[in-house]
Amino acid sequence: MIREFKEQDLEKVANIWLISNIDAHFFIPKDYWKGHFDEVKAMFLQAEIYVYEKDCVVQGFIGLNKEYIEGIFVSKDVQSKGIGKDLLNFVKERNEFLYLSVYQRNERAIHFYQREGFQIKCANIDEQTGEKEYEMIWHKNKGN
Length: 144
Description:
single chain
């Protein structure tokens, strides 16, 4: 089930965020993510977040800022089971256009988004990490 984030989800969502970022972004020091943990937790309380819940356990979530996907995060033990795709489809149904940024070295995520109809628009540098990233876009009216 996908539903809106509730305050009682905060600890689980924050831990999924931290572990997922450390695992997916081996090229960024763990201390970077740990150093932003409290700040991100506070932002979650004001963000547009939808969680994927099964058997009363939050297994993943997607964060949005209007049409911008801040990220899709899935618990490590349930990755590659369609949860990320379900979360993405949930927001695709509600939007005509979506975009996101993804680190170029996160090839798994790039392939996932391309399979789901996103296209690379341009390349940038993330000012906080110095890492190269792609901006990717998706349009509903382009058959996706």
